[in-house]
Design the sequence.
């Protein structure tokens, strides 16, 4: 069974940076594409970024392009989300998720989430 554990959330001022980490265990990490999602209070969960199995292809939500970077280290079974130039509207619970298929769908496994709060 796949387990995902996020870390790195916290409180930061607008313009600041955070790096989220997601540790993967239970199966072969390199067999899964990985995504970062977020959910703000009263809003639906949305995809923020995604990276394919090899790390050679990434996707970003338009509002985070140029500010966020997703990466993975297959030797460490970890996916990261570097978040720079943070804005108050980035405040949300951030989740990582794993998908065995190609394409931005079929995320079968989810972490418990980590809170990111950006103060103005």
Sequence:
């Amino acid at each position: 069974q796949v387990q995902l554990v996020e870390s790195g959330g916290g409180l930061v001022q607008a313009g600041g940076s955070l790096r989220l980490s997601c540790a993967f265990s239970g199966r072969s990490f390199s067999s899964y594409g990985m995504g970062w999602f977020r959910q703000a209070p009263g809003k639906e969960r949305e995809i923020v970024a995604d990276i394919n199995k090899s790390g050679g292809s990434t996707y970003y939500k338009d509002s985070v392009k140029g500010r966020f970077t997703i990466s993975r280290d297959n030797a460490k079974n970890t996916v990261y989300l570097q978040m720079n130039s943070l804005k108050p509207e980035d405040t949300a619970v951030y989740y990582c998720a794993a998908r065995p298929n190609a394409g931005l769908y079929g995320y079968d496994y989810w972490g418990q989430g980590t809170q990111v709060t950006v103060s103005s």
Q: What stands out?
A: The first strand starts at residue 3 and ends at 7. The chain has no helices and eleven strands. The mean pLDDT is 96.
